[in-house]
């Protein structure tokens, strides 16, 4: 996420880790992350599979144009909790009525490269037919959905090694085609969806996740990481 993009409260980042394994800057004055939330809105597809709602950012935006993201943004003072932040932002971005979503849980926060604490909020869309996407044209170019289980599979996935604060990590790319449209889901969005799918299906991904050699949580083996 670029600094100017953080200023408008959107959650798009190439880099992000679960907070328990994220690197902490040596300068404590810099470690003052702002809070944000994204909505992992799940519903049952026609074939009974679980699907998640995603957005493609407007191609007219100056930063991260055309990239795939989850609905979400920075918390506001009036937000009573992370669920309210996530559903409010989803309503603003894609016209999703918060009353259609049952918030069921929040996952461990992710810390973005530019020190934004992002809380993934899992919600269930109660009535898919009642949701008629109305993208905010200033922010969103398209709304689509993808199978949640896809983010546990090694199909249509590639990764590359990068470095942050002197440590190496993996960044994942998922290629997804629906209809005549091709989407690439990567970076922080992909990382959050891998975690959400792992929790939902109660099994690890079929590949090594980011696994940076920072502070490993005690139950690291459940995260499918190899030290």
From TrEMBL:
Nudix hydrolase domain sequence ranges: 33-189
Domain of life: Eukaryota
One record GO biological process: coenzyme A catabolic process
The keyword Hydrolase is assigned to this record: yes
GO cellular component: cytoplasm
Renumbered residue ranges of the record's region Disordered: 63-88
Pfam families: NUDIX
Cofactor(s) this protein cannot do without: Mg(2+); Mn(2+)
Protein's name in the database: Nudix hydrolase domain-containing protein
């Amino acid at each position: 996420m670029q600094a100017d993009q953080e200023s408008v409260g959107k959650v798009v980042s190439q880099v992000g880790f679960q907070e328990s394994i994220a690197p902490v800057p040596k300068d404590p004055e810099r470690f003052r992350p702002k809070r944000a939330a994204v909505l992992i809105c799940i519903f049952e597809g026609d074939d009974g599979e679980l699907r998640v709602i995603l957005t493609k950012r407007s191609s007219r935006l100056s930063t991260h144009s055309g990239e795939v993201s989850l609905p979400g943004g920075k918390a506001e003072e009036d937000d009573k909790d992370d669920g309210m932040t996530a559903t409010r932002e989803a309503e603003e971005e894609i016209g999703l009525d918060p009353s259609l979503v049952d918030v069921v849980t929040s996952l461990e926060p992710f810390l973005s490269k530019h020190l934004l604490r992002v809380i993934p909020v899992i919600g269930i869309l109660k009535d898919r037919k009642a949701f008629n996407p109305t993208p905010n044209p200033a922010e969103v170019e398209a709304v689509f959905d993808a199978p949640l289980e896809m983010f546990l599979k090694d199909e249509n996935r590639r990764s590359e090694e990068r470095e942050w604060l002197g440590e190496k990590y993996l960044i994942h790319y998922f290629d997804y085609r629906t209809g005549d449209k091709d989407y690439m889901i990567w970076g922080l969005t992909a990382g959050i969806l891998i975690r959400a799918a792992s929790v939902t299906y109660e099994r690890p991904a079929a590949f090594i996740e980011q696994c940076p050699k920072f502070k490993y949580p005690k139950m690291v083996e459940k995260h499918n990481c190899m030290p």
